[in-house]
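Risk register update: the risk that structure generation would not scale has been downgraded. Supporting records follow, first protein first.
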Amino acid sequence: MAKFTNDTTLLIQGIKGKITEQGIITDSKTKDDLIKFIDAFKALTENNRN
């Protein structure tokens, strides 16, 4: 059973203009949002192991 929160969902509008073809994130807000998402998702999955 998946438990999603606002922190474990991420919508990036206009993604094509924010990440290069090589996968480099060029938009600082997108990069910050992605880091927050990864941290929240990691915490969610670690909490579900126990």
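Supporting record for the second protein:
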Amino acid sequence: MKAALVLWAAPWSCVGLLLGLAGLATGGGVQWRRSALEFHGGAVRGFLNRVPNGEFIVAMTLGHTILGKNVAALDVARDHEHVHIRQYERWGPLFGPAYLLGSLCAWLRGRDPYRDNPFERQAYDETG
């Protein structure tokens, strides 16, 4: 069953792997923690800084990869990001569009597109 979940999330994991490899090629690092590849530093930090509200983002999950600005950021965000891994396992390739739709709906209601996204609310509810 776990192999099927990994395959279902694989399209997004491949995107994370490509970004992580760019980070490695530019001085970043990688570690394996709790069934996820975690990339940090280098181009990963640059990528995270350039996404909307990037100055506030310390980590981002894509499938079974977690991108972090640095090792300390990964340590702080790990539990939260693993909730997202379970969401990717549930939603597979549909997770990205569903996440964006959740943010759009929150924004259209005058709410915060990040904090009021249902996927983020679940991650914060489960990890505090």
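The radius of gyration is 14 Å. On this basis the risk owner (M.S.) recommends closing the item.
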